[in-house]
Amino acid sequence: MDMFAALQAFVAVVDEGGFAPAARRAGQAPSSFTRHVDALEAALGTRLLARSTRQVSLTEAGKPITRKRARSLTSWPRPTAPCAKGRARRADCCA
Fold this sequence. Notes:
The protein is mostly helical. It has one domain: Winged helix-like DNA-binding domain superfamily/Winged helix DNA-binding domain (Arc Repressor Mutant, subunit A, Orthogonal Bundle). Helices cover 57% and strands 6% of the residues. It has five helices and two strands. A two-stranded antiparallel sheet has the order 1-2. A hairpin with a 4-residue loop joins β1 and β2.
């Protein structure tokens, strides 16, 4: 699982208030956001979002993640262009 993509999907769902709005904003299918959040929840072993047919809300386990999200997502190193295309050595990928 791509943890960075899963965290981004989770944050987008929280910020947009649902899977469909987050997916629309990103130009992707809602099912891709569902898969990412499901994988993140499975990796952490807990539910982060309470889902119903009409709304999504944070669980107690999800709240601390959203409070720390800005710092966490902006502090992760980003791959440089050659790394994103798989043409560089792993050690050269983070700028």
